[in-house]
Amino acid sequence: AREAQLKAELERIREVNSVIEGVTASLQKAKGNMNSVHSTVNNASTLLGTWTRILSQTEHNQRLILNPQWKGATQDLEDIENEDIRRQHDAQRRAAEEQRKREEAQRRAEEEERQRAIA
């Protein structure tokens, strides 16, 4: 009787081990599936980011094309170049004005020095 009980208990333990092995195998498979889902989500995110940039650029291009005041990329480049030239002229004008002010201050200082020397 005791031996029969031990054999029955051994059989139940083997069944439990078999169930645990099945659960472990299922968890391993689930882990692999989760890695696959993770990879798929990352790829989808990358594609969505790319699609968003394409859509944004498309909307920008459409606004340009539909804008009656837009003269084209060539005009844009000319405008940028003209703006650069204007900035250079402004900088040169400011530099010349500063030089003129320095010379004027120098002239006044020399004139005051002459007036002091005369007096």
TrEMBL record:
Composition-biased stretches (Basic and acidic residues): 83-119
A Pfam match: DASH_Duo1
Subcellular location: Chromosome, Centromere, Kinetochore; Cytoplasm, Cytoskeleton, Spindle; Nucleus
Positions of region (Disordered): 70-119
Any one annotated GO CC term: DASH complex
InterPro entries in UniProt: DASH_Duo1
Protein name, entry field: DASH complex subunit DUO1
Organism the protein comes from: Dissoconium aciculare CBS 342.82
